[in-house]
Specification:
Number of domains: 2
Shape: globular
Structural class: alpha/beta
Distance between the termini: 73 Å
Strand content: 15-25%
Number of helices: 15
Length: 406
């Protein structure tokens, strides 16, 4: 296969169209889909050399695949990482990244503001294998420092957090982690690589659910882990090969094609999100709006320091609690109810009863995931239509509430 090289210094959009492309002998324009389990060798000696790592080439698609490799290379170019490894889902990426950082007897410090599945990995899965964990409020730097033990080997956080869009100061937490000899793993899925660069801020490992903005059109699952070459080779590669959370070549091909429009989609979604957040903040039926692009975000200074845009997600609290939040969701006609995010379609979910339902009432209260909180992922519809849909739904619920109270 022939590799296409890019001039140095080209922008992210150019890298996402051309980066990592490997062409076969046919010289295809679009990236080729190598939907194969295994590979054929010219000789038995060739097979032996590849398995021994003495010759280049693929041996089995669980280990590596040309289409998957193109996706990995393109993601590494976007992120500014030395190496990337794709997985079958975002949770596979999180789980593998954390397992690659620890062994029995180690200790992890993580922020409490995590997606429910991520909290499961930290709170339930790792302790089953002798890895203790301490959870802290992500914004409390003193708590991060106080949680460190002599056997702490990893920090884990997501920022902005799901679903409250709480922020963590990546550079400050990275400094604490490195002082303790630990690696910082950051889930960057809400911000995307276009609005936040954790590796440049001091993080050691970045993980994504490629299911979200990277695919961006609700088609397939995928994940990706990015870090330095040495850590990937020494800690991650064998784990992935032997446990098998491999990304399908077909899904990798879908992701490759989606990356070509990634900047266009996220830019449009972010612009619409800012407009929608402002409109929600003006509505009498809303108790609170949380959006990193607004000056009233509780951590606006951190957002301005480490993010280049507010992102595509909005959290808002409807007056009237769960019943009102459900009623607003049910009254929407353009926005769809779904627990996915980063999609071309605007999607809304009620975190307390879906993505974070496994938490106790006390845990949700601590994280400010109230019964009236809704998480809104902005899609590619006309901004005016999204605002009108929300306004209509909120107005109808407010009117019913007023009549009921009256």
């Amino acid at each position: 296969m022939a590799s296409s090289s890019l001039p140095s210094g080209v922008g992210p959009a150019t890298r996402l169209v051309h980066g990592g492309t490997e062409r076969s002998q046919f010289g295809e324009t679009s990236e080729a889909l190598f939907l194969t389990q295994g590979f054929v060798y010219e000789t038995a000696e060739d097979a032996a050399a590849r398995f021994a790592g003495e010759a280049e080439g693929f041996v089995y698609s669980r280990y590596g695949n040309p289409t998957v490799q193109m996706f990995q290379d393109r993601m590494a170019l976007l992120e500014g990482a030395e190496a990337a490894r794709a997985t079958a889902s975002g949770m596979a990426a999180v789980t593998a990244a954390m397992l690659a950082c620890v062994k029995a007897g180690d200790h992890v410090v993580a922020s409490k503001e995590l997606f429910g599945g991520c909290r499961y990995v930290v709170e339930d899965l790792l302790p089953r294998f002798g890895v203790d964990a301490t959870l802290v409020m992500g914004s409390d730097l003193a708590a991060w420092q106080a949680a460190v033990r002599p056997n702490t080997t990893a920090f884990f956080t997501e920022t902005p957090a799901n679903p409250t869009l709480a922020l963590v100061d990546i550079a400050a937490v990275a400094e604490i982690a490195h002082s303790a000899g630990a690696r910082l793993v950051v889930d960057n899925v809400f911000a995307t690589a276009l609005h936040q660069a954790p590796l440049k801020l001091g993080a050691d490992v970045v993980v994504y659910s490629a299911t979200k903005h990277i695919d961006g059109q609700g088609r397939c699952l995928g994940g990706v882990i990015l870090s330095d070459q040495a850590w990937v080779k020494e800690n991650l590669d064998t784990l992935l090969r032997q446990t098998g959370p491999a990304l399908s070549p077909f899904n990798a091909w879908i992701m490759l094609k989606a990356l070509e429009t990634f900047p266009l989609r996220v830019r449009q979604q972010t612009e619409t999100a800012a407009r929608v957040a402002d409109a929600l903040a003006r509505h009498a039926g809303i108790a609170k709006v949380i959006y990193p692009g607004r000056a009233d975000h509780p951590q606006a200074e951190i957002a301005a320091k480490q993010m280049t845009g507010g992102g595509t997600l909005i959290a808002f609290e409807v007056k009237g609690g769960r019943d009102a939040a459900f009623a607003v969701s049910n009254a929407l006609r353009v926005i769809k109810i779904s627990n996915n995010l980063g999609d071309a379609k605007s999607l809304i979910t009620h975190p307390a009863s879906t993505t974070h339902q496994r938490l106790t009432d006390e845990q949700r209260a601590e994280l400010e995931i109230g019964p009236g909180l809704l998480r809104l992922s902005i899609g590619l519809e006309d901004a005016e239509d999204v605002v009108a849909d929300l306004t209509r739904a909120l107005d109808s619920v407010s009117a019913k509430t007023s009549v009921s109270v009256g």
